[in-house]
Write a structure and sequence with these properties.
Keywords (chains A, B): DNA-binding, Transcription, Transcription regulation
Protein name (chains A, B): LacI family transcriptional regulator
Organism (chains A, B): Cecembia rubra
Largest sheet of chain A: 6 strands, parallel
Strand order of the largest sheet of chain A: 2-1-3-4-5-11
Order of helices and strands of chain A: HHHHEHEHEHEEHEHEHEHEHEHEE
CATH architecture of the largest domain in chain A: 3-Layer(aba) Sandwich
Number of strands of chain A: 12
GO molecular function (chains A, B): DNA-binding transcription factor activity; transcription cis-regulatory region binding
Oligomer: homodimer
CATH topology of the largest domain in chain A: Rossmann fold
Pfam families (chains A, B): LacI, Peripla_BP_3
CATH class of the largest domain in chain A: Alpha Beta
Mean pLDDT of chain A: 90
């Protein structure tokens, strides 16, 4: 699709040390800018052989009033909360949304972008699939100056705005809580190691251990592919280990629930024998027995912030300069870990 | 939008007593038809002043290879299963899907249809919002000959294909099971009475009672708006009633789970004091304590059947005549109702 390199507004902005929105305004001949600035930018654009991107222009001008959203999966409570936040915000501002799911599949993600761009959405909100390691499809979007931002599953390689939660701190809160309850042999059961959240939550896990003087060499990390089958197998293997842990921090709630079921089946008392904490705050976690200690992620608020920021960019209310929004997580202590009373 | 009545292929088909797809083929000058049939249809179309619908034509000819899906809500496990079935099927046949949710809101549903049609999807799969009582937006789609089918939340007023589950029979299975366990004072806790599933599941409830010689006058129906607050209130009120039931059939699993939590809080033994059954087979139902007896709806299969049928229609592999697919439900007995062993 690429026919030689097309100069972008971003490159002009970089060359002159001004913001992209200043370049954009200059090229639109906005009266807000000083004539000298405008002249300087227009001349630079000419000298760089800048061609005003017709597609991006038509996207910006003939607004469809629709945003496209791409999420890895819709069965996840977290992503459906994101979507609710995005939709409510978009609706209030006169926009509708169309959603595609990648099913954690890279090719599907590329197809989704193509589908939504062909549908002439005004902008995109994207959360990456697990499989996505190559970002050329995002680079192409960026080069074509199609407005988009990323949320939750993001990559640092593309300079657009990002909305994430403070994963490492959330994990730290959960593990710190387990330590406060008197646990010292705390295992971390993690998803695939190359996942962003696997790494970030491991960071928080290790930070909390360190604070209590437990070195990384004494940490216990188990890996699962997050299927129920493998989650159960890892838990059973862990119970066979010579040094059985006295607490488990599970990377996500669905994994924590699989672990909880195995522990109950094996007659392991929760939290007396093994305390347990998850991360996500799924609806099931509150009603299971014992109720699951977890870390709440503000999924709905993430969606609101992401949609408002993208719409602010589209309406030129904020600059196009990439922003990073990092939302806080909250510990929700429940019966699966509260040991203090019984000591 | 309507400028006088436009004659449709359906009307021509009705007039001649042939199928819509025969009319469609005749107007496309298909070689499969007998020249006499073709002539008869073309003449009738002319005499009725039929105007070949340009939008529908462009939709049919310049295929976007995208289907639009509208569901009431994405947080529901059932609807996200439908979507997975639709997406996997569409993907296998070279199509992508774009999804909109109505949030159970009629205006949002209308906006979604407009958005997806403007995006030139090849066809639509629609599940109605709770609020939808007026079907003009669907009638307009039908009149414009934009291909669509309905699933789960359907209306009989629009003659398009429909995919539903056998709600009444599923409810019958659950209540019949409670009766088999020896329960005789069985309450039905229902959502809003005007909902299609409220009515259908009540039918099944009454059928089962009747089979055991319990007249409708002895049935006990409680109504909730399905919010957790109201679900809890209705359950508490029911426990105060003079004639406390010995079993409860809850219209959907999330309601059953709210009821279960109240019963546990109040020290009511499940199933010894009150047996409980739900309907949906949500993931939580299997892991809650006691595990919840429920009726499984084949959500994924529904999505597969709906997508395959719509794509078959688009590819002229089946006629456009409306079909009704009714899928079976299955009882999943679990600990919340199994009393036989203890008797």
């Amino acid at each position: 699709m690429k026919k030689g390199h097309q100069v972008t507004m971003k490159e002009i902005a970089k060359k002159l040390g001004v913001s992209v929105s200043t370049v954009s305004r200059a090229l639109k001949d906005s009266p807000e800018l000083h004539p000298d600035t405008k002249k300087r930018i227009v001349e630079m654009a000419k000298s760089m052989n800048y061609q005003y991107n017709l597609l991006a222009q038509s996207l910006r001008i003939s607004k469809s009033k629709v945003l496209g959203v791409i999420v890895p999966e819709l069965t996840s409570h977290f992503f459906s909360s994101n979507i609710s936040g995005i939709q409510d915000t978009a609706y209030k501002r006169g926009y509708n949304i169309m959603i595609c799911q990648s099913n954690e599949n890279y090719d599907q993600e590329k197809a989704n972008i193509k589908t939504l761009v062909s549908s002439q959405v005004d902008g995109l909100l994207i959360s990456l699939s697990r499989e996505t390691k190559n970002y050329d499809h995002l680079r192409e979007l960026y080069d074509r100056e199609i407005p988009f931002i990323m949320f939750d599953r993001v990559t640092e390689e593309i300079p657009v705005s990002k909305v994430t939660v403070d994963d490492a701190h959330g994990a730290y809160l959960a593990v710190h809580h387990l330590l406060e309850q008197g646990c010292r042999k705390i295992a971390y059961i993690s998803g695939p190691e190359d996942l962003y959240i696997s790494k970030k939550r491991k960071e928080g896990y290790l930070d909390a251990l360190k604070e209590y003087g437990i070195p990384e060499s004494e940490s216990k990390v188990y890996i699962t592919d997050l299927t129920t089958e493998m989650n159960r197998k890892v838990t059973l293997d862990m119970l066979e280990d010579k040094e059985r842990p006295d607490a488990i921090f599970a990377m996500i709630d669905p994994l924590a629930i699989d672990i909880l079921m195995v522990l109950k089946e094996k007659g392991v008392k929760i939290p007396e024998d093994i305390a347990l904490a998850g991360f996500t705050n799924n609806p099931t976690s509150a009603v299971i027995e014992p109720s699951l200690t977890t870390v709440s992620q503000p999924g709905y608020e993430m969606g609101q912030i992401a949609a408002n920021h993208l719409l602010d960019q589209l309406d030129d209310l904020v600059s196009d300069e990439p922003q990073s929004f990092v939302l806080h997580t909250t510990l929700i202590p429940r019966n699966s870990s509260k040991k203090i009373k019984t000591k």
